[in-house]
């Protein structure tokens, strides 16, 4: 089955461009096969809460064990109604392993990409079995520090910046190559990514391209590199970077520019 994030993000972006409502249901599930997904589609049908036909899209993330249904043109009320049917079906067939989370764009968020990534992050927190939770874009205020993902193959740089930013009150996640950086980006949905361009497996450009494809509006990206050519600077900004800093760098200046981007 197709990976949930790129499949849903593509559909959500199209709905966002057309300024149409779109419901999302995420459910913690046992491993599903392509055949079992087809069976679920047949059994659940395509009728919404008001009895009308609904365009539905299904996806399953095997690694996160998340089953997702996207309902085109559906507001939160109809999405909730359909989620009740989904819950009953998954429980009856002993497929449900936790809670369900629902949302509707644009009711639940100003950004479809941000909503999807935050929903996936929220599903990492265990919920009561069979509970249907409603995603809140602006929950009760919490004093949560901003989060930074550091992607650099130089362990010394990672260690130094990790300690420096943690002492400044930031939540810091470290990745040593581009592939690891992509995986951790999807896990933590950071406020800022600080990446080098010279990375193993996936280079910095490839990492930025993948982040841009998944959620262009979710995180800011800062490039921290020893590449000084104008073409590298221009290419980085063209691919979505918000700032470009060359080594050697001043930690004080770096922090000031981080604050400007995410605080």
TrEMBL record:
GO-annotated biological processes: regulation of DNA-templated transcription
Gene Ontology CC terms, in alphabetical order: cytosol; protein-DNA complex
InterPro entries in UniProt: CheY-like_superfamily, Sig_transdc_resp-reg_receiver, WalR-like
Keyword set, alphabetical order: DNA-binding, Kinase, Phosphoprotein, Transcription, Transcription regulation, Transferase, Two-component regulatory system
Top-level taxon: Bacteria
Domain spans labelled Response regulatory: 147-262
One Pfam family per UniProt: Response_reg
Chain positions with 4-aspartylphosphate modification: 196
Molecular functions (GO terms): kinase activity; phosphorelay response regulator activity; transcription cis-regulatory region binding
Stored PANTHER family: REGULATOR OF RPOS (PTHR48111), TWO-COMPONENT RESPONSE REGULATOR ORR33 (PTHR48111:SF1)
Protein name as catalogued: Histidine kinase
Organism per entry: Brevibacillus formosus
């Amino acid at each position: 089955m197709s990976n949930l994030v790129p499949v849903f993000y593509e559909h959500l972006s199209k709905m966002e461009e057309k300024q149409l409502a779109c419901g999302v249901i995420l459910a913690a599930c046992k491993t599903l096969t392509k055949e079992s997904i087809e069976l679920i589609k047949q059994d659940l049908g395509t009728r919404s809460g008001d009895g009308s036909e609904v365009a539905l899209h299904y996806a399953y993330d095997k690694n996160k064990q998340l089953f997702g249904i996207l309902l085109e043109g559906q507001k939160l009320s109809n999405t909730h109604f359909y989620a009740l049917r989904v819950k009953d079906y998954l429980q009856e067939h002993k497929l449900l392993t936790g809670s369900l989370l629902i949302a509707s764009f644009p009711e639940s968020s100003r950004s479809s990409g941000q909503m999807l990534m935050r929903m996936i992050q929220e599903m990492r927190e265990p919920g009561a079995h069979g509970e249907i939770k409603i995603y809140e874009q602006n929950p009760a205020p919490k004093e949560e520090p901003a989060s930074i993902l550091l992607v650099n193959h130089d362990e010394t740089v990672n260690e130094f910046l990790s300690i420096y930013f943690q002492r400044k009150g930031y939540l810091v996640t470290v990745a040593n190559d581009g592939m690891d950086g992509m995986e951790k980006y999807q896990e933590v949905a950071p406020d800022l990514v600080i990446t080098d361009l010279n990375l193993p497996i996936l280079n910095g450009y490839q990492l930025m391209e993948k982040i841009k494809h998944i959620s262009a509006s979710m995180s800011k990206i800062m490039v921290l590199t020893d590449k000084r050519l104008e073409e590298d600077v221009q290419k980085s900004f063209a691919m979505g970077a918000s700032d470009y800093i060359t080594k050697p760098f001043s930690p004080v200046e770096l922090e000031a520019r981080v604050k400007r981007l995410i605080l």
